[in-house]
Hints:
Helix content is 47%, strand content 13%. Helix 13 (232-241) links the parallel strand 9 (220-227) and strand 10 (252-256). The relative contact order is 0.09. The chain has helices at 3-6, 21-31, 62-71, 79-86, 105-108, 110-115, 123-127, 130-136, 140-149, 154-164, 167-173, 205-214, 232-241, 264-273, 294-312, 341-355, 383-389, 399-413, 424-442, 449-459, 467-478, 480-492, 496-508, and strands spanning 9-13, 17-19, 38-39, 57-61, 92-93, 120-122, 177-180, 195-201, 220-227, 252-256, 281-286, 323-327, 374-378, 417-423. By secondary structure, it is of the alpha/beta class.
Amino acid sequence: MGFDDLVDEVLLVDDSWYPIPDALERLLHAEAERSANWTLLASSLGEAGDARTSSLWLSVAANRFTQALIAERSEATSLRTLARSCVRDDLRVVFDDPSFAEGDPECEHPLMLMALGYPVLARKLLLSDPLVLHRLAVDGRRVLDTFGHQGGAVTAVRADLRRQAAPWTIHANLSGTRILSDRPREDQERPCGTRATFVIECRNADEFDDAIRMLPRGSSGRLLVSTVPEARVDVERALAAARLPAGIGDRCVISVRTEEPVDPWSTLLLLRDNPSDEDEIVVAITGSSRAEDNIARYLRRYFSETLDSFLRAGVRPLEDSEVGGVFPPTPLVGDLAFNAHWRALAAEVRAFADSSGVHGPLDRGMPLGPMSGWWAAKGAALRVLTDMAAAASRLVVARREAFTILFAPGLASAGYDVRTVISAAHIAINHTAIEYDLDYVMTALPGYPVDQVALLERSGWRGSSGLLALLAAALRIRSRAGAGVVEKLARVIPSPRRRRARFARLEKR
């Protein structure tokens, strides 16, 4: 008795999709009454690696499968090649709407497909470059919500995304920012309704005062302070003079770090030494001692008002069982962290993460993580990061930047996502700023952002100034040899900045 006698139909599928069980069961039941030779989409049998190729899903008669298996004898034959060998003229496409005939229907029309009973969600959609989804006007968060409403396992999808995608990809594709209501002025003294462990990291009394001013008046819980030995006396005096929220009172602990610098890693060690309940919320506040100017005042208002809105909302963004940490988005006015130095840290941070058991993807450029101000997390979500803190002394790169890069991957390794939270007033400021900045940049670069990034990547441009740098970037697109000549000239001919520095040194002599 041969294989064809035992089996009537063979289903060829790959692992490029998440199932919707109910829709899948209905589809298989309906197709059982029809011919065995069918596929979901016409693009299901495209070449592997082609971005427009849909998830592999092909049902064929058993005898046709065995014939294709004999014809494709090579051990290197891929499943997709084997599937194409099974195809004949009588192949039926189940979802043959004209809208799906071109392009990539799984990424361009996911909601339309699911409304028609499409039984899977393509993994590549949520793993795509966010610039691609923005170009296609695809709302990944709505797609995932619809997938869940139809019976898909959203928890399993989110766990897979944490393993496969960099934090910014997940955050952007699922619209991870949450907008909180602004606080009424008359409510400033009312209790926030959320108990937490507040941790202040400061290197002097000025930074302590700055952090205390960010603490909402209605806060309740305990206060931990991490500082350096030489500042302890001044910080104790500042603490005694501070007007602490009534809900905190005298529940304060001052810790002096003698071996490690005061930074987020030392904050985690302080929490390890003063453990709290895993269900308690931890709020870490970083003070600033920068000169008092308009930027400093705006940043203090930005961080204090977003923290106040977060606590008065009952830490609602953390009510999601899979969200472990939140922080405000990087402010887009005043201070900007958009520069290329993050790439220079990548190799060492990657090595440190791997040695600590954090193997998920890291962001390529500016990371999704708390830059300054404050961050909050569930105690249980900090487990992996706390273990890493004990080994952070091995870091040669800037420790604070390493924490920013590893915050989201560390929480992902513990099984949690991150969110950014911002008040309605500040999202208006941030959004308007980025909208204007983006429009202004786009006047000098052709195409959509996804095209512009590809152009800049090909040019190798990293923000260097000067005519020779821009000329070299343009030549890299057209002529590598020509770009090499210009780069040599750039090394020989001093830039205006280097000339000014040289003249300044000569004047000092």
